[in-house]
Amino acid sequence: MDTTPDQRPQILLHDPTLRDGHHAVSHQLDADQLRVYATAANAAGVPVVEVGHGNGLGASSLQIGRARLDDATMLTTVREALTSSRMGVFMAPGWGTSDDLAAAVHHGADVVRIAAHCTEADVTERHLGVTRDLGAEAQGVLLMSHMASPGKLAEQCALMAEFGAQAVGIMDSAGRYLPTEVTERVRAIAAAVDVPVIFHGHNNLGLAVANSLAAVDAGASVLDATARGFGAGAGNTQMEVLVAVLERRDVATGISLRKILAAADVATERLMKAPPSIDSIAVASGLAGVFSGFKRPVLQSARAEGVDPIDLFLALGERQVVAGQEDLIGDVARQLKAAAR
Amino acid sequence: MDTTPDQRPQILLHDPTLRDGHHAVSHQLDADQLRVYATAANAAGVPVVEVGHGNGLGASSLQIGRARLDDATMLTTVREALTSSRMGVFMAPGWGTSDDLAAAVHHGADVVRIAAHCTEADVTERHLGVTRDLGAEAQGVLLMSHMASPGKLAEQCALMAEFGAQAVGIMDSAGRYLPTEVTERVRAIAAAVDVPVIFHGHNNLGLAVANSLAAVDAGASVLDATARGFGAGAGNTQMEVLVAVLERRDVATGISLRKILAAADVATERLMKAPPSIDSIAVASGLAGVFSGFKRPVLQSARAEGVDPIDLFLALGERQVVAGQEDLIGDVARQLKAAAR
Questions:
Q1: Which amino acid positions bind Mn(2+), per UniProt (chains A, B) (predicted)?
Q2: Residue B85's Cα: distance from chain center in Å?
Q3: What's the complex ipTM?
Q4: pLDDT tens digits, residue range A290-301?
C-alpha cells in the first residue's frame, strides 16, 4: 500500500445529498433510503455526509413541509451507517433552536452549519457559540449570496469567524452566479478570514461545476456537492462530476471516483424520481435570482391568476424577494394580471 | 420599434438539435417532430437550424443506424418550417459524398459543415470546395479535438480556411474539456485564421456552458447548442441556458429568451424520452475522452464479457480509440476479462 502523503492541493467535499436533496422529494426520504446512500457515500470516502429536513434542524412543520422522519431518527440512522465519514447538519436560526443543536450533537453530528441570509450574519452568533460549546465543528454559511457585494460578504464571513465559525462561506441559493462573480466573492472572503472558505453551488444556469472550480482557484477549500446533483429544481453541483473534474485538475479529494460513481447510481435508483435537469422554470429562476424553493408557490400563483410563471419569476427577481416573503408572490401575480389587462 | 443597431458583442448560435440530438433517439425523429421544433426555433430567432441523421448526410445505413426519414425528406420538411433561420447540414467525408452535398443544397441547405477527425483536415478539401461551388456557406469542424494540441488544431483549422471554409472550429466530441483547455485551443485557432471560430461542446463533465463562455472569451464567435441539451449521453451545450448566460454577460445573440425557453419546452415534450443527464457512464466516457457514440457497443461488449463498462471506457481512453475503431471495443473487453482472471 502506498503510504506517501498526497502532495496535491486538497479540497474537502461536503455532501448535503440527504439534506438539500430532500427538497426534491418534499422531505420524504425514509430510513432505508438514508441508510443505503449514507453507506455508499461512506464507502466512497466522502468526508462529510449531511442529513436532515431540506430546511435543516427543527424545520419540519406544516408551513414549510413535514419530513417523513423526525430529526432524531434521521441522524441516528445515518450515524449508524458512517464508519469513517463525519456527519453534518444544517440549521437556520428561527427554524432551529439551541435544543435542536444539542440533540443533533447528542445523536452524533460532527459538523454543524449555521445559515443566515447573506446580510444577516449577526443572527448566527449564538448558535455558532452553542455549537462550539457542544464540541462540534461550527461552520457559518450565507444564503442567497448573489444579493450582496464581495465586500459585504467578506465582512459578514469575518463576523461569523469572530463568532467562532471554523469555516465560512457562501451559497448560490438561486443558482445565479457566473464564474467571474464567484471568483471575486470567494477571493474577497478568503482575504478577510483565516478559516477555510466554503462554496455551495446550484445548477440553474448550468455553471455549478465551473463555479466550484472558480471557487477553488479563488481560495475556497470546502465545496458542497450532491449525488447526481440531487436537489430542488436544477439541482446542486453534481458530486461525482466534480470529483472527476478535480481529478483532471490534479486536486485531491480523498474520494474514490469509482465508488462515488457507484454512490451516484445508488442515489439515482433509490432516492430520486428522475435526475435533476435544467427546465425553463429553473433557467428563469436562476436568471431572476429567486430562491428555488419558491417554485411551487410561484407555479400555484401563476395558475391561480392566469399569468405566465416565467414572467412571475422575473418580476419577483426585480423586486429582490427573499425567503420568508412568500406572501408577496400572490400580490406580484395579481399586479402582473392587472398590468396585462 | 427600436431600430438602434445592437452595439454589444455578437455571437452566432448554431442549433444542431435535429442533427446531433438525433443520436439520442437512434435517428428516429419523424416529420412532425422536425416540423414542430424547427418552427419553434425559427420563431425564437435561432440563426441556423441544422438537420439530418446524427452522423450527417449519407450516413443512414445498416451499420451506423438507419434514420426514419431520408435526407431529402428531412431537409424539405425543415426548409418549409423556416422563414428566417438558415438551414444547416453536417457531412463527414466517407459517410457523405458530393452528390449528397449537391442534393442538400438543392433542398435548401444554406450552411454546410464538413467534419474531419482532428488531425485529418486534408480530407475536407474537396467537399469544402464543392460546397463553395454550390453557393452555400462552407464551414470546417474538427472532431475529438481534445486529442490534438492547440498548435495542431490551429494548423488544421488554417488548412480548412485555405480550402475555402468560411468558419472553422472544434468539437469536444467526448465532452472532456476543462475551460482552460478550450481557452488555449480557441485562442490558438483564432490567431491562425481570419474566419469566425466555432466551438461545439458536450456536457459529460458538466462544463459545456462554461466551456462555451471560455470559447467566447478566447475569440470564438459561433457556438453550437441544442434545445434542453438534446444529444447522446450527457448531451450538448444547453441552448436556452447558454442564451440566458450570454444575456447575463451582455453578449447579443439575436435570440428571444422567452421564445427559446418555449422551443426547449417543445423539444422536451415532443423530441426526447427524458432530458439528458450526466450518468456514471457519461462521466467515465468524458474522463476517458472516448467518443460518446461508443456507449452502446461498450455496454454490449462489457455485458458479453462480464467486465465493468466503466473499466472498459477508461481502458479505451488509454488506448486513444477513435470513431471507426469500434471493432477494438470487443478486443479490449476480452483483454480486461483475461487480465481479471
A1: 20, 200, 202
A2: 18
A3: 0.95
A4: 987 788 889 999
